[in-house]
Structure formats: C-alpha cells, structure tokens
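Please, structure for the following, as tokens.
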Amino acid sequence: MPSTRRVGRPPARTATGLGARIRAARLAAGWTQQQLAGERFSKAYVSALENGLVQPSMAALTYLAERLGTSPASLVTPVERTWTRLEADVALAAGDWMTADDAYAALLETTAEPLTRAELLRGRAEALCSIDRGRDAIAPAAEALEIFTRADRPADAALAAYWLSGAHYMSDAHAEARALLERLLGSSAPGGALDPDLHVKVLVALAAVEGRDGERQRALAYLAEAQALAGGFDDLRRASYTWALASSYRELGDLEAALRYGQQTLALYRAAAAERDAASIGNEMALTYLGLGNLEAAARYANEAAATLAQLADERKLAHVVDTQAQIAAARGDLRGAVELASRAITLAEATGNGKALVDALATRARARGADGGGEAAVADFERAVDVATEHRSPARRAEVLRAWAELVAAQGDHAQAYQLMKRAAEPT
C-alpha cells in the first residue's frame, strides 16, 4: 500500500509523543503556551500540539525548536521517560489526569506483580474516567477488580468496582453500572468493604443512574441518604459530596435544592481556598440559575468562574464555562454573541481534547445559528456534534443532540424533518 504520509510533516504516530516533548521543553524553559506561541502562532495551537491533537509542519517545528533552544530532531526523536509510582499517584491526586494516565500506562508495561499491577490499573481507570474516557477505563478497572477479588482484598476490590461502574455509566451501560453499585451497597453492612467515603460516592452514583433512567423518587432517596452520611465529614470532603448532590438535583429538575447545595459547596471550597473547584461549582450555579430564568445571577456566576479559570490557565474546564456564557447570551437574545462565545468554547475544547465540552458547544452554536437564520451552518454544527458523540461512543449524548436539533427544526415549522431526527435519536448506534 502506498504511504499516505504528507511530505514535510512528522509521522502521525508520533503526534502524542511529540506533543509531550514540546510541553516538557516548554516547562523546562519556564514558558507559558502563549510565550512559546510568540507572534506566529496562537496559544490554542500550542495547546493542541501538546495534547497530540494536531501535527506541526516542519516550518512550525523548526520555529518552536529555535524558540526552545533545541533542534527539531530532538523534539521528534522519542526520549525514554521513566515514571515512578509516586509521580503517577501525585499527578492523579493533583487532578493532572492526562499525566497520570501516561504514567500509569508506562508503569504497567514493566509491572508483572499482580497486586501492584492491580493498583496501577485502578489508578489508570480513575484517570481515564476523569477525562471522560469511560469506554477506555472499562478494561483496566475490570482487570483490577478481578485481581483484588482473587487476592481477597475487599476494600481495594470495592474501589475498583466503583470506577468500573463509573466507566460503564459513562459508556451508557446503565444496567451494568447499577448492578455493580447495588452489589457495593450490599457490602456496606457491618464487616463489609465500604468505608464512609466510598459509601457516599456509591449512593450519589446510584442517584445519577436512577435519575438518568427517569426513576426520580429512587434517585432522591439515595441523595437523602448520602446527605445524612456526609454531614459529619470535614469541609473539603463534605464539599465534594454537596457538589455531587447539587449536580444530581439539577439533573432531576429540583433546581431549588440544586441551588441550596451549590451555595453550600461554593462556600466550603472558597473557605478552603480551592479556587479551581469553586470555579466548577460556580459554573454549576450559573447553569442552575439559567434553568430558573435568572439570567443576571447566571451571568454573574459564569463570569466569576471564567475569570478564575483563565487566571489558573485551566482551559479544559474553561471550555465548559464559556459554553455556559454562550447559552446565557442566547437566552438574552444575543445570538451573535452566543455564536462567538460558543466558537471560543469549541476552540478551547479542541485544544484540550475535551469531547464533552466540544459536543455541548457545537450544539449551543448550532441552536444560536439556527435561531439567527444560519440554517446551513447550524446543520453542519449539529452533524459534527453527532459525529463527535458517536466517536466518543456516547449514544445518550448523541440522542440528546439529535433531540435538540429536532426541537429547533420543529420550532421552525419543519415537522417532517423533526420526526426523522427523533427517529435517528431512537436508533441504536
């Protein structure tokens, strides 16, 4: 078969490794992505390079190498990176999930001892779930669960089962997720494997599963039980659970409860100076106020969250907040502003590999374009959002996009097309 490689570009298979080497060289130089980009490129382009989402031309590679005081060959040539278990665990605890995934994957290549391997697999499953790669997390979580079960390590097996349930949930396999979580809940009796932290996590996860399947009363019962158990936790631990409660209540449509727990969470994180977490909560608050029609409060929370995340240079989370700002602009009738903000959210999502934010922002821009008369552009955005959701193996998100598309065309009077889109939404993928 003839080669499809483009002349003048590094081979596609080296894109991810090349990006990691560019990032390492930039950090060693003490530069930001904007400083490395200089006047020739954008910060988003450098971010996309470092995340392995695009390949540089030889001219771009030469320019970046010169600015970093090295050669193009040194960036292209793989350098063996030796990770330690401590580095992997620290990256996971710090929320640097991409680095944690890289580290655990590398350590697994040279680890044969079963229990150590199971711990690495479980860590990798958590990292993968945290970057919305639930489908990829299933295999390592399942292997970790099997090893811990054989070794009669119930506490470790329980945590592996929790991440396996999360991986199934993110892959829209709700029955598998529910079965794992209910088994875990059954082990919470005296002498069982669940500690209080995991017990609350399981209850919140079960609420999410039941809520997604329309079982509102069961979901609320699980949330009430979780709330009672989390009451005695310290501030940061309690904050993580009140956040989960707020998100779950919002998904269930109980916006008043979502606001109540969201305010509690925001106060706890601010007291602990956990700015990044506080910004994420602020975005949840903005979405909740948007659902209530309070656009002034929604804008205030979204703007505060965006400013914090921009200061922290957290572009992955910022993509979600800018999409929220786009939705607020659309609700105000500022459709062109909504398109501009959604376009920015799309750029951020692409640069950081955030598939969830990309689907959301594409759908937001499609709705705004459609309402502003940009029919063809709206169709292109909806189709791409469907493609991205399909690529990420998320049939539920694909169906959500198709239903949103159907609602738009129905509002425009094209009921025949709306019917066809609803049929597509109901089709298995």
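Residues 1-16 have pLDDT under 50 and may be disordered. The CA atoms of residues 99 and 116 lie 19 Å apart.
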